[in-house]
Amino acid sequence: MNTNIEALPIVIENHSFVCNDQRMWNLNEIHRVLNLPDNKAPSQWRDAISRAMESSANLQKVDKVGSLATEAGTIAYAMWVSTSFYLMVINAFIFMRNDVILRERVAVLQADEANAALSVATPKANIFDGRLARGGSVPWTWACKTLGLAPFKLRDGLKRSSKFILPALSDQRNPYPPKAAFDSGHFVWKTDANDGKQWQVTAHGYAWMQENASKWREAIARDDRQKAVAKRAAKRSRKVAA
């Protein structure tokens, strides 16, 4: 499994708990949110197991934060609380791990599908490069597809980050670059066959896209994952409500 992949939250009794950058969960938060007994507070966990967890760095006591634990430490804490709570926690971690594996498999399949689609949808390299080399421009979708980017998701994401705009009285239906980006030569306006205005990417703009492509791909993937997690959480909530 790719250990660099963003960790998903664990869900216990319909509450989501997110780890920090070191992949450690806040036991005090879990204790408080789930309203566990006072005598099962992390500060009361002082047996041989807790000492072993501390010595192995699976459990850390942080001032003004509380007890932080790795997956192993969180499971050990749950075992100390009760057998039923241990089962809930271990099942939450199993669900998260299975979800990560599933997401990675889906990502691989999507990448294969995208590569197959790009081989058909992306313009021939000599046509693409030739236009830019001659000082011309290419459509936004062409530029995005050659960089492995989803053009519409990226366009909307750039609008959310205020790099693209869509004024209320604009004659454009979709977000587009601001005037400064045209003035700097990153983009140009073109007139289509119906005398409508369409913007395209210049060589200067394509170089800018190349510099940011990796970051944008990660942002799009992260947004897709967050939406998927929210959708699953909402589905689970509807089942509980029913």
Q: Write down the overall geometry.
A: elongated
Q: Please provide the ordered H/E string of secondary-structure elements.
A: EEEHHEEHHHEHHHEEH
Distance separating the two termini: 35 Å
Overall mean pLDDT: 83
In angstroms, what is the radius of gyration?
Answer: 25 Å
Query: Sheet with the most strands?
Result: 3 strands, antiparallel
Give the amount of beta strand, in percent: 5-15%
How many structurally independent domains?
2
- Percent of residues in helices comes to 55-70%
Order of strands, widest sheet: 3-5-4
* Tally of individual helices: 9
Low-confidence stretches: 1-5, 118-122
Describe this structure in words.
Helix 3 (about 70-80) runs antiparallel to helix 4. This protein is elongated. The chain has 9 helices and 8 strands. The chain has about 240 residues and is α+β, with helices and mostly antiparallel strands. The strands form 3 sheets. Strands 3-5-4 form a 3-stranded antiparallel sheet. The chain has a 3-stranded antiparallel sheet with strand order 6-8-7. A two-stranded antiparallel ribbon has the order 1-2. The chain has helices spanning about 25-35, 50-55, 70-80, 85-120, 125-135, 140-145, 150-160, 180-185, 205-240; strands spanning about 10, 15, 25, 60, 65-70, 135-140, 185-190, 195-200. About 15% of the residues are buried. The protein has 2 domains: about 10-100, no CATH class; about 120-220, no CATH class. Helices cover about 55% and strands about 10% of the residues.
